[in-house]
Amino acid sequence: FHRACIAESGSRSTKVQNCPGYVAMLAVPHDDYVSYLQSVETDFSCSGFCRFWAQPLFSADSEAGHRCASAIGEEVVNTGYFIGLPTVVSGAVLVGLGAALAGYDHL
User: Fold this and answer.
1) pTM surpassing 0.90?
2) H or E stretch at 7
3) DSSP character for 54?
4) Most buried in the list 13, 24, 71, 90, measured by CB within 10 Å?
5) Backbone phi and psi for residue 30, each to the nearest 5 degrees, phi listed first
């Protein structure tokens, strides 16, 4: 869609919002995908999912060369550490406490 718009307008700096037919893309069934792509691109300052150095579709402030797929992957890894590390530590504490109480005879 965006490539066809760029080819029609002749300008690589044309944003997808300015393309003819963009408003039609905001209707079902495309509305979820368009809003998701716009949210990801603006929230993570990234551009493209499959190719490095893709042109940003929505945000002029997007970082060139930073793929949205990589940005989402980094966020998932960070969330995994944020949730997993405290879980592992509390599990180790509970195992240690259980081992200490198992050897205690005066309960």
Assistant:
1) no
2) helix 2-9
3) P
4) 71
5) -85, -15
